[in-house]
UniProtKB/TrEMBL annotation, chain A:
Domain DUF112: 21-437
Keywords per UniProt: Membrane, Transmembrane, Transmembrane helix
InterPro entries: DUF112_TM
Pfam hit, one: TctA
Segments traversing the membrane: 12-33, 118-138, 145-163, 169-187, 199-220, 257-278, 317-337, 357-377, 389-406, 412-443, 463-481
Protein's recorded name: DUF112 domain-containing protein
Protein's organism: Sporosarcina globispora (Bacillus globisporus)
Automatic annotation (TrEMBL), chain B:
Classification lineage: Bacteria, Bacillati, Bacillota, Bacilli, Bacillales
Keywords on record: Signal
InterPro entries (alphabetical): BUG, Bug_dom1
Biological source species: Sporosarcina globispora (Bacillus globisporus)
Protein's name according to its UniProt entry: Tripartite tricarboxylate transporter substrate binding protein
Position of the signal peptide: 1-21
Amino acid sequence: MGELSLIGESLASFFTVKIMLLFLLGTVAGMAVGALPGLTTTMGVSLLISFTWGMEWIEAMVLIVSVHIGGTYGGSTPAIFLNIPGTPASAATAMDGYPMAQRGEGGLARGLATFQSFLGTILAAVLFLIGAPILLDLSMNFGSWEYFLLAMFGIILSANLTAESLSKGLISGILGLALATAGMDKITGVQRFTFGESALMDGFSLIAVLIGVFGIAEVIDSIMKLKPPLKAEKFQSSIPPWKMLLKFLPAGGRSSVIGAAIGAIPGVGADVAAWVSYDVARRRSKKPETFGKGNPEGIVAAETANNACVPGTYIPMLALGIPGDAVTAVIIGGLLLHGLQPGPLLLTQNPNILNQFFIILTISAAFMLVFGLFFSYLFQKILSVPRSIVLLVVTVFSVVGTFAVNNRPFDIGIMFLFGIIGFLMRKVGLAAPPLVLGLILGLMAEQNFRRAMVSSDYSFVPFITRPISLFLLVCIVFLILNQNQFLSKRLKNVWGKIKPKGASL
Amino acid sequence: MKLKMMVLTLFSGVLILGACSGNQSNQKASGSKEAEGAYPSQPIEIIVGFSEGGGTDTMARTLQPILQKELGESIAVRNMPGASSALALEYVNEQESDGHTILFQTDLVRVFPTMGMTDLTYKDFEQIGIGAMGIANFTVKDKSSLKTFDDVVQLLKDGNAKVGVAAIGDPWHLTLEIVNSVVGGDAEIITYDSGSNAAMAAMKGEVDFSISGVNEVVDLLRAGDLRSLAVMDNKPFDVDGIQSIPPVTDFVSDLDKYVPEGTWWGPAVKSGTPEEIVNKIRDAYNKAINSDEFKEFTKKRAIVLTDIEDSQEYTKEITEKTSWLLWDIGVGKRSPEEVGISRP
């Protein structure tokens, strides 16, 4: 019970006007980027991070986490009413949400999605509180070998699941790895691909690349085919009856565990969590044929899992310092900026940090629930804003946000360059997530591989003799050998029906 | 609709202002005239070559209010990370030499001549002072078979030691090279980006021992999982909460002329700044580092106050020694002569 009183103590420090305003701002902003098709949570977080520079770390985390939660949830509304997932994470929601809306049960579907997103976040936050200390205890067993393999695992898994085919995914992944080699090599001090440009000495600015491929690329894409604003119908939301919620509690629990577990694996995100959970629910159902035709259980499975994924991704992020996706990479950057080093040292620096993250997650979930249930008209407003204004705002935010990170005009050029690259990649069907993951994890993979080699006198044997390393190695081999049978097959039969374009991480 | 657009424009406007507020003192009137008379004549900027929240930034921000009071003009700390702080050096070098742009210099200035991040050297700046230092120390995991610094020396002499440092050319790597050259040792170097990560690698057993700043590992030492065998100094180091750390000179007296070794911090201005302005800043800085606030800060973080008298001369000597050492052992990227650093 000591743990609980500790949480209570930290809790009190959150109830200030400023922090509550940040929760509010983050939730609404997150829901907006989530609801607008093309704008993803990753982009929302990257754009916001530079505005948190001057804040205390806890305020910065409040803002980022509530955008993360709000954004993951926000995609469900257009998925249900318009059959257009706001983010790839809500693609599975559309499967049963849209048929329900056509039947005139859209309000119920939306209410259910809202409540299940809340439930998923809360249950997964509890799992986070249990899982993170366990992984932290284990973290001393994660040496250079394990970090290298985890990074490779993340890139390969992301290539496997987010792209049309493994080969196309790997092309993006390798492109990302290649980009990661730019900059001064930290081990020998040699400058690689900097072309004498001192701004490139630390490599490509991650934020500039992220905003480029997720933000500017979308802007270019939309200008090419300027879409009219979405026909915003009347979005209603009804609170689902208690009996129904109670009935779905076991399914929600199962989906939360699936979501959190998938979140904890580097390289996969909320979209995969939603599909896996959806698939499991259908297989276990007595009437699998009703799925895809407006079965509320489909919404429960998808919406619980995609939000449960969020706290799941925070487990390896805090315990090992491994960013499983672009959002957590940005959050790690934010933590480092405030002098907090994720990984085994974290608890010596700030013994209370896990509780603080737990509190941020639960309060964000509460804000999301309230706004989701009672402010449906907000979504209507957001979705009826003309596309041109949305694009303008995104462009302005992109430029300002990129510049503010390092105060360097050079990064703005990088951002536009990657906007064009990202746009071209879309045209040829190359997914952006493996590229970004390659860039994020590339340096980690390379450095740790070289450390591992030196440390073991250039022998590969420790990869097999170290238990965690062996386990990861087996996973990677399994992943490559079974890329058409294992996870991906069950995913791809559902995946084929709605192919998310430019899936987010 | 109009209202909506106005709100959106306003909202983004506010955010833009917020993002740019760090740069507000960007524009500077070239003030060669007022530089003679009353310094400071306008707000002062302290340029930090690293991100917010890091060790260098925290120190600059601890000193900022005290300097502000002493100089009687508002002072803003501005972060300009990139290229191991070389970008910050270049920025300060592009400003007027009127004392209104102060560089928060670190010891990295001594490796630039041979590592080549920038052509700027100590000659392009006037070092105001070097008040604080993070002393190098040798750490092992608690259960390590290395019990004293003698064991470390023996391991280096045997030539198959694996040593963790933060980066090539950093003070911890230099410390290793100095010890190796004195005792005739050799080691395999593995870099871990920061001293605390290198210490973690020692705890995990990936390296035999690590070299880092005491300030970087003080939490780990207090937790008891990490042991410090010696500091690169000639006097023992007393840190709150752990046993006093013996100096390397207790074990190898020949190291005496190379100590203290570690990372250091102190303000510098562009060379050519009038002497009376330099003196004015120097007086303020000396008062700041002798203040109770700063002393408490250094004590908590296990940072050492130095007794360096002539910091410009010190920077010159240490740059010559360091850059030629790096060049001679083959890790330097260009001869220090190329940027006019003569052999000591």
